[in-house]
Structures are given as C-alpha cells and as structure tokens.
Design brief:
- It contains six helices and no strands.
- The chain is an all-alpha fold and 216 residues long.
- The chain starts with a helix and ends in an 8-residue tail after the last helix.
Length: 216
C-alpha cells in the first residue's frame, strides 16, 4: 500500500513540475509578445493559461484521490494539502501571464530602450516560479527560503520600472497611455513574484509545519 502511495506522490511531483513549466512558458511568451510585438507569442501565453487551468483540475483530482484512497500520515497530509494550495497560486500566475498577453495585443511592440527592466522582471519572476516548484519536489528548504528572499529583487525592479515610466511621461506626455499599460504589466509581474513566494511558503509548511521561517 505504501509503495502505491509513494508512486502516486511521485506522480503528483511530476504533474506539479509540468504545471510550473507551463507557468514559465506563459510568462516568457507574454513578455516576448510585448518586447517583439509577436502576436503568436501572445496567443501562446493565452493558450498556456488554459493548459494551466486544465492541469490544476487534474492535480486537484490526484490530491483528492491520495486523501481518500490512502491513509496519509501527518507529513504526507501536509505535502498534499500544500500541493492543493500551490496549484491555486500557480493558476493565478497563469491568469496574470495571460493578462500581460492581452495588454500587448492593444499596445503593439515596445522599443527596448528604457524598458529593459520589464524584461529583467520577467526573467526574475520565471526564476522564482521555477525555484519554488523545484523546492517542493526536492523538499529543499534552502531553495524555498531563497525564493522568499528573492522577492526583494522583483520588488526593486518594479520600483525601477515605475521610475522609468514616470520619466517617460515627463519627457513625452503623449506616451502616458502606453506607460500606464507597461506599469500594469510590471504590476502583474510583481504579483507573479508574490504568488511564487506563496508557493515557497507552502513548501516550508510541507516540510516544517509552519509557513514562516524559524525565528520569523
């Protein structure tokens, strides 16, 4: 019975990694659509959001099967309940990547000059999502804590983007509409980072029984 349970747990880990990969693809495609004006990438981000929704339903079903058909001990129960919370945050990540893609369809390609921090924010957000899911699969507490600390990097980049966009509006008032769209995109990336932190906190819970670092 335990060997069957362990196989199903392994399946859960694999499905979470696949869902995390879809999130990464959605974010990257949405930002590429923004930077290059590539509408095919925008459509890809939106498709990935639908794939993420489907994966969420499949993982939820697997978790319920583990809970109902097996008799998980306390640590396993924390793992399964954490997974259920994580997929909710990952589904929101997919939503926000799709929202970025939707905005790009209305504003077209953005010149790279002065907007590089948006691209850097996207890379940082992808890193946080990747590391948070991997920390769960590997039960790596240090990696999860690293995700939580890295959120300061994304927050700092968001502040930089705000400053860049403020300067852009001051230099050319006619750019205000585009600047506000870019600010919204940056805000979505910041929120993606926040959801990755939530995932990392659930990893902490699955390992230690607390969502906060020891001493925090």
């Amino acid at each position: 019975m335990r060997s069957q349970f362990d196989r199903q747990l392994e399946e859960l880990h694999l499905e979470l990694m696949k869902m995390g990969a879809l999130c990464e693809e959605a974010i990257s495609a949405g930002v590429k659509a923004l930077l290059e004006g590539d509408q095919a990438m925008a459509e890809k981000a939106i498709r990935r959001e639908r794939d993420i929704d489907q994966r969420e339903r499949e993982i939820e079903s697997l978790c319920m099967k583990l809970l109902l058909q097996q008799q998980p001990v306390a640590r396993d129960l924390r793992t399964i309940s954490s997974a259920l919370k994580m997929i909710s945050d990952m589904e929101r990540i997919g939503d926000q990547a799709s929202d970025i893609a939707e905005i790009t369809r209305s504003i077209g390609p953005i010149p790279l000059h002065g907007q590089l921090h948006v691209e850097e924010m996207a890379r940082s957000a992808v890193k946080m999502v990747t590391d948070s899911v991997e920390s769960f699969v590997k039960r790596n507490l240090d990696m999860a804590l690293g995700v939580m600390e890295y959120d300061d990097v994304v927050d700092g980049l968001f502040d930089q983007v705000k400053e860049e966009l403020t300067a852009l509006i001051r230099a050319d008032a006619s750019s205000a509409g585009t600047a506000l769209d870019l600010l919204m995109i940056a805000k979505y990336l910041e929120r993606i980072g926040d959801h990755a932190v939530n995932v990392a906190e659930w990893v902490l819970y699955s390992i230690t029984g607390s969502r906060q670092p020891s001493g925090g």
